[in-house]
C-alpha cells in the first residue's frame, strides 16, 4: 500500500471544503460525496479511503468522547463541553458512553489526548509503579 | 479520631479528582521491531513511548500524521490496534558505581541474574558532548599493557583510538587486555594509598556479537578479576536492532557519570560496524532514504555524536575523562570502505591489525606503518619515550628492508645489522593474549634492546630471553621496577642500576 502524495493532497483539499468556519459540516461533506460520485477522480477508492481517515481524525479532534461509570448529569456534560472548548480553542461536542469497568470517575478522549480521572486508571498507575 | 477519618476522606476525594493526561496513538503497522503509530501528536524526537505489557519504544520518525517508533526488546506480543502512549521523558539509564561488576542490557537492566542494580541516579542516553571551553588536551597516559601499543602508539586519557582490522585478528583481545590492565593498575594504585592515584573504570559495550563470545569475554574478565571495575553493556546479535543501536549510547551515559564526578573511564565499543548495520536495518524498515552502501544519510552523525562524548574535561569541570576504544571490522583489509573512513576521520588515531601478520604468528598483529596515535605521545611517560623513542622508525625501516632483502643475498653490513635488529624487535613485541604487562616491565625489557643486550641472542630465542629478563626483574629487582614506576623517567641512577641488572642477568641466560 503506497500512499500517493497527490491523493493525500486531494483528500486534504476535500476535507477543507467540508469545513464550515473551521468546523466539520455533515451537509458540506455529503455535497462533496455527491460531487465525487458524479465526477469520480482517478483512484476513486483510495481517495475516499484517505478522505474517510481525515474526516475521522477531524471528528475525533472536535469530540470529547466521555466514558463514565455511574450516572453523568447533564450539567456535568455542559461543564465538560465548556472546559474542553476553551482548552482547545474550538467547538467541542460531547459523546457519552457508560463503562462500569472504570469503577468510578471519568475518562475523556479528545483526538489523541486522553484525560483519565477514573479509579481504574489510578489503580493501573499504582500497579505500574509497584511492579 | 474523627479528624483522621476526615483526613482519609479528603485523601480519597483527592485521589478521585486526580486527572492523568496522556497523549496516545494506535499501532497501524508493526514489523521487525518497528511500529508505525497513528496519533501521538505530541511525541518528541527520541521520546520514550510506552506500549501495553510494559514494552518501551523510541520515537525516531515524526511525520505529519504518524510516528515511527523502534521497539526495544521483545515486540512479538504487540499487534495492530494496540494503544501507545507518550511518556514525556527521554530515554535514560541507571548510572553509578552500583553497576560495576554487572552485565546489563541496553536499557541498563541487569541480565546476569544477580538481582537488581543498585543505583539512585539516571542519565539520559542522548546528551550533547562537552564543548570546547570545558575540554583540556590529553596529558595523562592510559596504559594498555601491550608493549607494541604503549611504546609506539601510546594512548592518553580522553583519547579516541580506533581498533580496526579484519575478522579474527585480535581486535577484541586488545580491548580486553586494556581493561584487564586498568584493573591491575587500579589494584596496585588503590592498595598503595596514594591520594593522587586516579583509577580507571571500564565500560565494555557488546554490539551484535554472538552470545558465546560474550560469555567468553565475561569469563576472561572474571578470571582476571577485572570485572569489579567493569560494566558490561550487552546487546548481542539475538537482541532487537533497536537495542543494538541504543547500547553504545547507554554505555557512554554510564561512563559520563564517572567523568562528571571527576573520575576516569574507559569505554570499548565492540563493534561499531555491527552498530552501523543495526542502524541501517532500522532505517530501512523506517523507510528512510538510503545512500552509499544502503546506509542512511546520517550514519556519520550516528558515530560522530557518540565518539565526541569521549573527552578530557578541565579542572573547572571536574578533571574527569572518557577514553574510547571503538572497534571496526574491515573486509579484506579495506580501510577505504564507507564506515571505516568515517570512523577513522572522527577518531584520534587507529591501531590497524593485519591478517598477514596475525597468520605469521606476529601477535598482537599491529601494523606499524598504518597505525598512529595523533595525541597520545603527549601523555606517554618519559621513561617509555627514552627507551622506545626510535623503535617505531626502526621497525618501519625493517619492514621495508625485509621486503627488499628477499631478492638479494649480498647485503652490506649496515643493512644486515638493521635487519637483525628489526627481527629482534618484532620478536620482542610478541605478547600472548590476556597478559598485559605493567609499564615498568615494558621499560625494563625495552631498555635492553636500546642498549644492545639482545644483539647476540638468536632471534628465535628472543621471546624466551624477554620472559627470562622479566622474571629476573620481578623476582630479584622489584625495588628497581618500583622506582621506574614512581619516577616515570630514567635518570643517571636508574640507568646505572639497569645496566648492573642486565650485566647480572646476561650470563645466567644461555
Ligand atoms: N596476542 C595474541 N596471542 C595469541 N593469540 C591471540 C592473540 N590475540 C588474539 N589471539 C587469538 O586470536 C583469536 C581471535 O581473537 P579476537 O577474538 O580478539 O579477534 P577479533 O578480531 O575480535 O575477532 P572477531 O572479528 O571475531 O571479533 C582468539 O582465539 C584469540 O585468542
Ligand atoms: Mg571481536
Q: Could you say how many structural domains of chain B there are in total?
A: 3
Task: Give the overall pLDDT of chain B as a whole number.
Answer: 93
Question: What Rg of chain B, in angstroms, do the CA atoms define?
Answer: 27 Å
Radius of gyration of chain A: 19 Å
Major β-sheet annotation of chain A: 4 strands, mixed
CATH fold assignment of the largest domain in chain B: Rossmann fold
Q: How many strand units of chain B?
A: 16
Which segments of chain B are poorly predicted (pLDDT under 50) over 5 or more consecutive residues?
none
The helix count of chain A comes to 5
Distance N to C terminus of chain A: 40 Å
Describe the structure.
The complex is a heterodimer of chains A (about 130) and B (about 500). Chain A has 2 domains: about 5-60; about 65-130, no CATH class. In chain A, helix 1 (about 5-15) packs across helix 3 (about 45-60). Chain A has helices spanning about 5-15, 25-40, 45-60, 75-90, 120-130, and strands spanning about 20, 25, 65-70, 95-100, 105-110, 115. In chain A, about 55% of the residues lie in helices and about 20% in strands. In chain A, the strands form 2 sheets. In chain A, strands 4-3-5-6 form a 4-stranded mixed sheet. Chain A is of the alpha+beta class and about 130 residues long. Chain A is built from 5 helices and 6 strands, in the order αββααβαβββα. The relative contact order of chain A is 0.12. Chain B is of the alpha/beta class. Chain B folds into 3 domains: about 20-90, Beta Barrel (Elongation Factor Tu (Ef-tu), domain 3); about 95-270 and about 300-380, 3-Layer(aba) Sandwich (Rossmann fold); about 385-510, Lysin, CATH 1.20.150. Chain B is about 40% helix and about 20% strand. Chain B is built from 16 helices and 16 strands. Chain B has an 8-stranded mixed sheet, sandwiched between helices. A 6-stranded antiparallel barrel of chain B has the order 1-2-5-4-3-6. Chain B has a two-stranded antiparallel sheet with strand order 7-9. In chain B, strand 3 and strand 4 (about 55-60) form a beta hairpin. The longest helix of chain B is centred in the middle third of the chain and has 22 residues, at about 170-190. Chain B is elongated and about 95 Å long. The mean pLDDT of chain B is about 95. The interface of A and B includes residues 57, 115, 116 and 121 of A. Magnesium ion binds near residues 171, 172 and 270 of chain B.
Amino acid at each position: 500500500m503506497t500512499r500517493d502524495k497527490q491523493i493525500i493532497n486531494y483528500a486534504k483539499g476535500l476535507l477543507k471544503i467540508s469545513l464550515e468556519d473551521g468546523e466539520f459540516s455533515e451537509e458540506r461533506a455529503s455535497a462533496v460525496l455527491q460531487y465525487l460520485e458524479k465526477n469520480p477522480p482517478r483512484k476513486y477508492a483510495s481517495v475516499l479511503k484517505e478522505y474517510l481517515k481525515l474526516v475521522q481524525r477531524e471528528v475525533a479532534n472536535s469530540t470529547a468522547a466521555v466514558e463514565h461509570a455511574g450516572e453523568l448529569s447533564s450539567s456535568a456534560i455542559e461543564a465538560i463541553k465548556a472546559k474542553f472548548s476553551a482548552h482547545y480553542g474550538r467547538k467541542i461536542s460531547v459523546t457519552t458512553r457508560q463503562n462500569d469497568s472504570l469503577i468510578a470517575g471519568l475518562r475523556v478522549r479528545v483526538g489523541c489526548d486522553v484525560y483519565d480521572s477514573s479509579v481504574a486508571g489510578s489503580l493501573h498507575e499504582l500497579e505500574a509503579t509497584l511492579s | 479520631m474523627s479528624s483522621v477519618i476526615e483526613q482519609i476522606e479528603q485523601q480519597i476525594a483527592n485521589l478521585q479528582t486526580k486527572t492523568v493526561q496522556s497523549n496516545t496513538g494506535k499501532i497501524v503497522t508493526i514489523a521487525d521491531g518497528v511500529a508505525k503509530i497513528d496519533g501521538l501528536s505530541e511525541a518528541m524526537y527520541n521520546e520514550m513511548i510506552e506500549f501495553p505489557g510494559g514494552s518501551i519504544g523510541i520515537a525516531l520518525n515524526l511525520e505529519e500524521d504518524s510516528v515511527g517508533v523502534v521497539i526495544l526488546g521483545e515486540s512479538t506480543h504487540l499487534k495492530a490496534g494496540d494503544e501507545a502512549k507518550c511518556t514525556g521523558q527521554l530515554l535514560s539509564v541507571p548510572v553509578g558505581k552500583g553497576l560495576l561488576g554487572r552485565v546489563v542490557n541496553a536499557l541498563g537492566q541487569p541480565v546476569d541474574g544477580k538481582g537488581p542494580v543498585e543505583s539512585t541516579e539516571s542519565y539520559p542516553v542522548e546528551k550533547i558532548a562537552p564543548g570546547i571551553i570545558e575540554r583540556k588536551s590529553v596529558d595523562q597516559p592510559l596504559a594498555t599493557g601491550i608493549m607494541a601499543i604503549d611504546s609506539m602508539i601510546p594512548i592518553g586519557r580522553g583519547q579516541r583510538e580506533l581498533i580496526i582490522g579484519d575478522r579474527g585478528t585480535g581486535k577484541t583481545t586488545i580491548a580486553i587486555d586494556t581493561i584487564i590492565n586498568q584493573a591491575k593498575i587500579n589494584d596496585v594504585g588503590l592498595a598503595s594509598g596514594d591520594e593522587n592515584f586516579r583509577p580507571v573504570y571500564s565500560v565494555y559495550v557488546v554490539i551484535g556479537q554472538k552470545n558465546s563470545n560474550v560469555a567468553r569475554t565475561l569469563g576472561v574478565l572474571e578470571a582476571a578479576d577485572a570485572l569489579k571495575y567493569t560494566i558490561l553493556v550487552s546487546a548481542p546479535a539475538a537482541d532487537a536492532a533497536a537495542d543494538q543501536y541504543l547500547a553504545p549510547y547507554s554505555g557512554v551515559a554510564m561512563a559520563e557519570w564517572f567523568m562528571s564526578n571527576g573520575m576516569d573511564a574507559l569505554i570499548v565499543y565492540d563493534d561499531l560496524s555491527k552498530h552501523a548495520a543495526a542502524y541501517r536495518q532500522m532505517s530501512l524498515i523506517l523507510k528512510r532514504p538510503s545512500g552509499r552502501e544502503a546506509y542512511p544519510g546520517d550514519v556519520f552523525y550516528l558515530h560522530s555524536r557518540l565518539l565526541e562524548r569521549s573527552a578530557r574535561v578541565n579542572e573547572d569541570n571536574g578533571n574527569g575523562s572518557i577514553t574510547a576504544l571503538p572497534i571496526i571490522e574491515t573486509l579484506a583489509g579495506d580501510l577505504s570502505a564507507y564506515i571505516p573512513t568515517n570512523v577513522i576521520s572522527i577518531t584520534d588515531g587507529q591501531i590497524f591489525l593485519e591478517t598477514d601478520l596475525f597468520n605469521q604468528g606476529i601477535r598482537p598483529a599491529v601494523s606499524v606503518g598504518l597505525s598512529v596515535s595523533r595525541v597520545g605521545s603527549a601523555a606517554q611517560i618519559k621513561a617509555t619515550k627514552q627507551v622506545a623513542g626510535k623503535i617505531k622508525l626502526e621497525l618501519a625501516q625493517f619492514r621495508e628492508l625485509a621486503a627488499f632483502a628477499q631478492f638479494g643475498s649480498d647485503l652490506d653490513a649496515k643493512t644486515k645489522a638493521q635487519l637483525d635488529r628489526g627481527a629482534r624487535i618484532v620478536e620482542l613485541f610478541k605478547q600472548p593474549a590476556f597478559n598485559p604487562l605493567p609499564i615498568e616491565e615494558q621499560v625494563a625489557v625495552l631498555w635492553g634492546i636500546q642498549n644492545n643486550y639482545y644483539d647476540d641472542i638468536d632471534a628465535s630465542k628472543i621471546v624466551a630471553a624477554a620472559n627470562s629478563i622479566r622474571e629476573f626483574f620481578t623476582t630479584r629487582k622489584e625495588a628497581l621496577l618500583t622506582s621506574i614506576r614512581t619516577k616515570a623517567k630514567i635518570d643517571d641512577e636508574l640507568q646505572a642500576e639497569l645496566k648492573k641488572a642486565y650485566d647480572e642477568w646476561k650470563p645466567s641466560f644461555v
